[in-house]
Amino acid sequence: MKILAIISSPRKQNTYNAIKSIEAIHKEKYDCEYEYLFLTKVDLKGCIGCHLCLTKGEEFCPLKDDRDIIIDKIESADGVILASPNHTANVNWRMKNFIDRYSYLMHRPRFFNQRFMILITSGSYRGIKQATKALVLMGSGGKVISKIGVTNSEGMNDKKRKKQSKKLKKEAIKFINTMNKPFVYKPSLGHLIWFSAFKALSKKTEKEYPADYEYYSKREFFVKLDLSRYQRFNLKIFKGLFGFLIRIGLV
Questions:
Q1: How many Cβ atoms are within 10 Å of 224's Cβ, its own excluded?
Q2: DSSP string across 80-149
Q3: Distances (CA, A) of 140 to 80, 137, 200, 206
Q4: I need a surface site. Which of 58, 137, 151, 191 has the fewest CB within 10 A?
Q5: How far apart are CA 205 and CA 105, in angstroms?
Q6: What tens digit of pLDDT does each residue of 117-150 get?
Q7: Alpha-carbon distance values, 60 to 20, 32, 63, 110, 211 (Å)
Q8: Angle 189-204/229-247 helices, nearest 10 degrees?
């Protein structure tokens, strides 16, 4: 199995060391290949907020760099670890830029075959939850298996460090055990609602968001699946509901 670790920290210290600990735990149990992708070493230019990726399509982004290379790396991995230090109650700026550059995935998701682990390192407990929530968005197409915050405060005593180490190992094993099993994407209720809402909305916003309209008009669901009668029924109900809400101006 192949695991891609995307690290936004500019230093090989706390975040990097936490990933190395996770890698060691994984390799104790299974034969797995690790690839490290440091955002400091790839060409991922700063998002300029033009919204062209959202409206017209990601191919219209004026920034030409390694964006699509990173996409290919994510899609060729079985599991992805997204790791960032906590800076001012959020991910650091490099990881925030990473999220912004792929914001179109919140409209037209991918990564349905990938499983994700979210890792936040911090000098204190404050801000870990906020930073974790920001990174979960990147794994929303696939399945987020594990979420862990690692605190490196000098004020931690041995008991707290031992407890944290135990939790890190538990989440690491949970992540690798899931990847060692055959993985078949199963649409969640949230994904059925997500698809129905955007498909209904894309008709209303065809002129403003032609990329969304083209994407959703060609699909019965995000990916080609033999949906059950129950899932098809839900899609029909949710689509009708959102269509009604749009018609009466509540959406």
A1: 8
A2: EEEEEEB-SSSB-HHHHHHHHHTGGGGTS---TT-EEEEEEEESSSTTHHHHHHHHHGGGSSSEEEEEEE
A3: 12, 5, 20, 24
A4: 137
A5: 17
A6: 999 999 887 889 999 999 998 887 888 999 999 9
A7: 37, 36, 9, 18, 10
A8: 40
Rg (CA), the chain: 20
* Both structure tokens of 76: 């060729």
Rounded distance, CA 45 to CA 43, Å? 6
In 3D, which of 124, 119, 117 has the Cα closest to residue 160?
124
Query: pTM value?
Result: 0.92
Q: Which domains are assigned to the chain? A: 2-179 (3.40.50.360), 189-247 (no CATH)
Task: Identify the bridge partners of residue 86 per DSSP, sorted by sequence position.
Answer: 91
**How crowded is the C-beta side of 9, counted as CA atoms within 13 Å?**
21
Handedness of CA 65, 67, 72, 73 (dihedral sign): positive
Q: How many CA atoms lie within 13 A of 164 on its CB side?
A: 20
